Amino acid sequence: MVGATGTPHKADASGLPIKDRLTGLGTLASLRDSIDSIAAERAADPAPFTIGLVNLDGFKPINDLFGPESGDDILCQVAERLLACVPDGASVMRTGGDEFAIVLPFVFERKSAEKVGMMLKEVLSAPFDIGDRHVRLSASSGFAIYPFAGAEAGELTKSAATALYRSKRRGRAQITVYSHEIAQEMRRATHMEQALRNAIIANEIDVHFQPIVEIATGDIVGFEALARWCDADLGYVSPAVFVPLAEERGFIDALSEALLRKAAEQAVSWPRHIFLSFNLSSAQLVDPATALNVLSIVNRAGLDPRRLDIEITETAVMADPDIAGRVLTMLRNVGCRISLDDFGTGQSSLGRLCDFTFDKVKIDRSFVSRLTAERSTEHIVRAIIDMCHGMNFQVVAEGIETAAEVDMLRRLGCTIGQGWYFGKAVDAVTARRLINDSATRQLAVG
Ligand code: C2E
Ligand code: CA
Ligand code: CA
After folding, report:
1. 227 closest CA partner among 272, 278, 274
2. Which one of 50, 76, 357, 428 is most buried, by most CB atoms within 10 A?
3. Of 209, 215, 226, which is best to mutate to test ligand 1, by the most ligand atoms within 8 angstroms of its C-beta?
4. How much is the pTM?
């Protein structure tokens, strides 16, 4: 967020402000005007030109830590640096909180755009002074070249935003120029988006269930619900592809609600001691309404929330720790348990285990599959298990594929596991049969 001084003033004919009061730069409206006028000048001979969007990485924490005045101060310094370094004829605008645009009338192709991106990256990586302190930031950028990436302002800006989004997804300080490959991927994603939306409406997204077992006995203690989609044209599409797509395109709630409804309707008929584990995606954890949505679906299905585990990842929690904390607390208050999924991947921090209240930690498959080959992994997994037990978290090992891994995990004190060794995700009917078989075996042993 920018401070009060950050509000832009003066408006163009459509009511959009044209000058940003904080930095004195033009705004989104002037970006559009600038694109339109260069395009008009070149109407007879449409020579290319380039626009770039530059977004600061990790600006929000700076604002939170040092206060909005310091944030404003940094934004002004960014504006000055950009103005000082852009090539002749270029203009700079501030198009959002920590986002800037650059119009480059004499940048005609990809290589030159990348060069400008490298220069911006360099210039913005130098420390910023706020009072007597120094802060380091990085910036990501996305470029779009006219007319290939868009023949009018809205489309060209959208392409630059897509390129910027790609940069952000790849990490910090990345540079992306909108390309043929990106355009093709966008078309493919749009086609998949349509198919997925239709499949949700037609109730064609299925849920399969992977058993979670007690390692010592192999008894089923729960099932993880995993989304399954097979499209007539596209064939089998992995949830690792379509779940992020639904998040990105803003309909993860519809997808997730359909999945939870189906999963809960099945879980109701399982014996009471068998829990349902359900994945929530990152986008859902930044929405305070998620807890109530989840609970109302579970209630409608008649499933006791105490039989529901909610799986979340660390990255999802970190996107907005305040809201995530609220959502998770509400769910826990009615008896749901919270599992930290994929533990050990991403930017895991052991400290995070203390910041939030979890009930379970799922050790990622990448650790489990290295367990029997690497001594160091054995030590890490042992440490994770001991630490979790010390903090009263249950530990579930994921992706167990071999008997050797089972043995090792058992020796390390892990009691609950999941993986192809015990069973792949199966449809509701097969899950039911697995439960019956497991019950019969327990009776025979008992
Ligand atoms: P995840 O939550 O980590 O789920 C575990 C993934 O590992 C599943 O892949 C599962 O089939 C696979 N797996 C389980 N055991 C083994 C094993 O022993 N070996 C190997 N190689 N793989 C194993 P899947 O079903 O393709 O799901 C991929 C990811 O998609 C999930 O990772 C989860 O992040 C996401 N996802 C799936 N269903 C849902 C859903 O309903 N909602 C949300 N938000 N995400 C979902
Ligand atoms: Ca999971
Ligand atoms: Ca996982």
Report:
1. 278
2. 50
3. 226
4. 0.84
